[in-house]
Amino acid sequence: MITLQNIEKYYATKGLKSYILRHVSTTIQQGEFVSIMGPSGAGKSTLLNILGMLEEPTYGTYEFMGEDITSLSERKKIELYRNHIGFVFQAYHLIDEMTVAENIEAPLLYKKIAGAERKSRVADMLDRFNIVGKKDLFPNQLSGGQQQLVGIARALAAQPSIILADEPTGNLQSAQALQIMELFKKLNEEENITIIQVTHSEVNAGYGSRILHLLDGVIKEDLNVVNL
Ligand SMILES: Nc1ncnc2c1ncn2[C@@H]1O[C@H](COP(=O)(O)OP(=O)(O)OP(=O)(O)O)[C@@H](O)[C@H]1O
């Protein structure tokens, strides 16, 4: 599903290159649940953003679902993103002026999905996440955990093949974090949705099947998680 070959990312200031990612090569199959770990500044978010087409590598090739991303037009990239990728952010990134239901519906409008289908998908998501009673509330009327559930519901409403999550439980208490991780595990096992998460938590990484350890922009370790 994903092939990265010799990905490099650097910023040049006054002729000096500061490398964020170096020689990153890996393959991720459909249905994997991968955690990206490493110290602060190691390049984890940058790698996730490249995978999600939110940033471009300086060098190297990125193949996603058989398409060479580095040579695609902006329009084609947006289309691929809308059709396949659900992004979940640490700080939720919900739209404050929209209700829960409107937030979940928003990406479906971009995908030009017809009204009746949109309503039905939103209703399904509200139901599935047990938040029907919250549908007319605004994000600031929800707890952090509930906001993150809405963030995930919004990503899933578009029926993605892959979820990219940047520290999805970073702002949550442990019980809420557990709920989100259980949900990811279920989506991965039952719906074969590929999941790639950035996390600092060993517990969260234990929900996945593989850990990529980044250090100073380089993949230092690529481990299979052994479930005890
Ligand atoms: N636009 C930019 N210009 C210059 N340097 C940048 C830019 N964006 C990110 N960086 C640098 O890239 C490095 C990696 O950042 P990144 O956010 O990917 O790290 P991270 O591993 O996700 O860290 P954290 O765990 O703290 O979120 C950091 O040192 C950061 O300062």
UniProtKB/TrEMBL annotation:
Keywords: ATP-binding, Lipoprotein, Nucleotide-binding, Transport. InterPro entries: AAA+_ATPase (IPR003593), ABC_transporter-like_ATP-bd (IPR003439), ABC_transporter-like_CS (IPR017871), ABC_transpr_LolD-like (IPR015854), MacB-like_ATP-bd (IPR017911), P-loop_NTPase (IPR027417). One of its GO terms (cellular component) is plasma membrane. GO terms for molecular function: ATP binding; ATP hydrolysis activity; transmembrane transporter activity. It comes from the Bacteria. This is ABC-type lipoprotein export system, ATPase component. Pfam families: ABC_tran (PF00005). SUPFAM superfamilies: P-loop containing nucleoside triphosphate hydrolases. Residues 2-228 form the ABC transporter domain. Belongs to the ABC transporter superfamily. Macrolide exporter (TC 3.A.1.122) family. It comes from Pedobacter hartonius.
